[in-house]
Amino acid sequence: MSEDTEKGAGEPKPLAHITRQALKTHSGEFELDSITYINFRDRGISDLGCIGECTNLQHLNVSMNDISRLAPLSSLKHLLTLDISANRITQLDALKDADSLQTLNAAGNLISSIDKLACLAKLEHFSNLRLQDKVHELFNPVCHGASYKKRVLSMMPRLKVLDGEVLSGKGSEVFRICSEIDATLQAAHDSGLYAINTSKPPSGASGIPTSGPIPEMSKPQPWFAGDSLKLKDTKAQDAAIDDVTKKFKDVLVDCQRLQEEGQRALDQAKSSSTQQGIDHLKNLDLSI
């Protein structure tokens, strides 16, 4: 059993601060600079300790801890993804030289203003930022400000994903359409156009629903009327058919003409080849 877990419990030990031994035990690597991936999610960490010595670290998850300072991360030049969600972080300046960083999840912290994000704007490869997670109810104070999204995108125009929303590239159009559908459904619900009946059916003493009238369901209706897909203007329909027929006949005539020209060219080639063969035989010296 790994020393990184409680004996008999199977749950990771609280770390408080990250040590060399914890890093080696967790990763299975003997040298810290050989570690490329670390997941210390929900370990009670308040101090990142010596994690900066993992100079080749590429993926780090320290979410759901008690971290307030990111200074030890300043030496991680090869970091690609970083999850620091659900901590107590107020500053991101330690990431200003993380030139390889592509994705940052900082939802559920204490970042209070757009200015605190300026250090990320200069990172050439940075394209995915999350400052709020509505599903898990993780936010930053900055997310509640006016024009939050507009101001973030103005500062970081290279962003492709913000708070899980695909802004550009593959999937952006699908995401936009789904968002519009969600908004339309929510607006219809809010306006009372439809409602979900959450009331429970009447029950007897045993808890089994008693008999009662079954609500009448509306009969299904066809999506289209019987003649809705037919052309209303029969003259226009006849004209369209005549036009297509004429074009098809013209194509057939062209095909026949090309076939005849091809046959003539082939006959000429055969005739020429035969005559050349006869002339060649005449010129041969057949004497012994």
UniProtKB/TrEMBL annotation:
Coiled coil: none annotated. GO terms for cellular component: cytoplasm. GO terms for biological process: outer dynein arm assembly. Transmembrane segments: none annotated. Keywords: Leucine-rich repeat, Repeat. Pfam families: LRR_9. This is Leucine-rich repeat-containing protein 61-like isoform X1.
